Hints:
The complex is a heterodimer.
Chain A: E1 4-13, E2 16-26, E3 31-35, H1 42-50, E4 57-62, E5 65-66, E6 77-80, H2 92-102, H3 107-121, H4 136-148, E7 154-158, H5 166-183, E8 186-191, H6 194-200, E9 203-208, E10 211-216, H7 218-223, H8 228-233, E11 240-248, E12 254-257, E13 260-263, E14 271-279, E15 284-286, E16 293-301, E17 305-312, E18 315-322, E19 332-337, E20 343-346, H9 359-362
Parallel strand pairs in A: 3-8, 3-9, 6-7, 7-8
Antiparallel strand pairs in A: 1-2, 1-4, 4-5, 9-10, 11-14, 12-13, 14-20, 15-19, 16-17, 16-19, 17-18
Helix pairs in contact in A: 2-3, 2-4, 3-4
Chain B: H1 10-38, H2 42-45, H3 59-65, E1 66-70, H4 73-76, H5 85-92, E2 95-100, H6 103-134, H7 140-149, H8 159-169, H9 175-200, H10 204-211, H11 216-245, H12 248-253, H13 261-271, H14 276-296, H15 298-305, H16 307-311
Amino acid sequence: MAQIKVKNLRKEFGSFTAVESSTFTIEDGEFFMLLGPSGCGKTTTLRMMAGLELPTSGEIHIDGEDVSNKRASERDIAFVFQMFALYPHMSVGKNMSYPLLSQGMPRAQAREKVLEVARILGIEHSLKKPVRGLSGGDRQRVALGRAIVREPKAFFMDEPLGALDAEFREHMATELRALHDRIGATTVYVTHDQMEAMQMGDKIVVMNHGVIEQFGDPQQIYDWPATKFVGEFIGSPAMNFLDFHGSVARGSTSVLLGDCEMSIPESLDEYSGAVTLGVRPEHIHFSDHSSYRGEAIAVEYLGTTQIITIQTPHGIIKARVSSEVAVNSGETLGLTFDARTLSLFERTSGRALLSETNKAVIGNG
Amino acid sequence: MSFSVTEPSKRQKWFAGIVVVCYTLITLMPLVWIITTGFKSSPDSIAYPPKVVFTPTVEGYVNLFTTQTRMSPGVITEPRDHLPWYEQIVRKKGNTIVGPSRFSERFFNSVIIGFGSTFFAIVLGTTAAYAFSRFRVPLKDDLLFFILSTRMMPPIAVAIPIFLMFRNLGLNDTHAGMILLYTTVNLSLAVWLINGFIDEIPIEYEEAALIDGYTRFQAFYKVVLPQAATGIASTAIFCLIFAWNEYAFAVLLTSGTAQTAPPFIPTIIGVAGQDWPAVAAGATLFLLPVMVFTIILRRHLLRGITFGAVRK
Ligand SMILES: Nc1ncnc2c1ncn2[C@@H]1O[C@H](COP(=O)(O)OP(=O)(O)O)[C@@H](O)[C@H]1O
Ligand SMILES: [Mg+2]
């Protein structure tokens, strides 16, 4: 159990910078998500934290101790690999006892420990089986078991559910989170799946092109994206973006979108030029009184809700509304946005403008 | 009847079966010929048409392992009952055994040189291949290409320089010299084949072992080696087969102490006239070690050759 601190962590592969300069702190017992599209440097970050890759610069502290230049085996962490990396020439039990025996634990005691963990994971009947024949889920459990038996300071998992079938992934995600709640060990979990991150994580770091875009809990990140990228990457459908030219003054509470005045949260920044208004699909409502109009061009029924694709003067947006609202394709709709939830972004840098509502989340970032 | 794309039809199966049987017969024929000739008497071995049914005798084997001379008529009268069975066989032809032949020595040389060079080729090849596969080796591709390029001509093309080199270094006709030579020739094959096999093993296994608290060498030894075993075994067979059968260098570089079986076997012909059964007996025994070695590693060999295809 440990707190993990990462300071200005950087990794270059030749002239290519995989991780720019990452800084974040993972609190003891947290289920921490490293989220980002593939190739953004998540694995590299995790591998540096685990000691499988040496950082170009920067520091890693586990439990207050600087481990930046320590070997993987000296960091007392467990790593669950994407493809599980179970030793194919060993049985399930051997795979799980392997890390214990390497620490010099007596065989009998190791066997005991393995059995105990196998019970937690529900694989106690498979201990003698070779790992070759196991299903994806059981392999996953064995990989977890191998990590758990050692009672390490922290678990590092690199897309541990990536190799599983979609339907089973959901189940394992729940199981994994339950397991974490039971054991309470600090867990760093890498994923490119924003749903997974939102569903399981206590804290999320969103990365893109080797840069940390935002750090916070799932709700904060969803509601108050620090950059346009985060708003787009998180949420399904993604945040809608309406590009326009305008100016926002400090303290202003509205912007001119075309010739419609839109209420926004009180701005704490001032900016004028190319801006983007970000609005989540569920914060779009229909009202005949609104002068901001769009044409419904597709209706996608999802049970209790429906996704309406709308052509507006500022591009195509998607709204999520209750299925009870009757909307036909081709219909012209008056649109209103929940003023309190809107974000404004500088279009060139993608940075969110500070407002009264998001200052608590992105204020010091 | 349902039609299946993957399952061959009955007729196709029959056809395939017949082809396999024919091929097997063709390849087995010389082998059967050699093995049976080894158990024929001298006249039977050159009978025409060839005898399929014959009275088996171990005369060929006795001739192979012994040196004999013609006896003077006076000695023949001696009673034969107390003589060992092999002496009795020889006496029937009017010969007597004066000592063992060189065959077992030469055979033993083959074993030492064949297995010795295979051992070194595999040990060096595996470690080199591991390094090529896992470490950042400067000029890696060029080095690998250079290693392969040593096999782009037949090894015998450099026979003269090697002969001169060996003579100057005092390696002519020594076990060490032959082991060194065969190891060198086999090493490129070993590095390339094993490199391919190790490349196929995901590096995560070793990383998992490193995190589990093992040293790099332990990770190599306990995780990589067992998984590369099939590949290493099949490579070992290829190396052994080459070293075992190699003839040209053996003729050139060995004549006495370190002479291997291949250059020795033809000399049997000359020892006691055209003694085909003895030659066949020598060839049969010569086949055995590689056959046994291959059978022991057979499972690995098949899997090793189809390694890449099976894994994915
Ligand atoms: N050993 C390496 N050598 C060179 N480039 C690498 C190496 N490992 C990763 N990269 C590059 O670094 C970037 C980040 O990789 P990675 O951390 O694996 O991304 P992610 O896990 O987020 O998908 C990728 O563009 C990848 O090609
Ligand atoms: Mg990755």
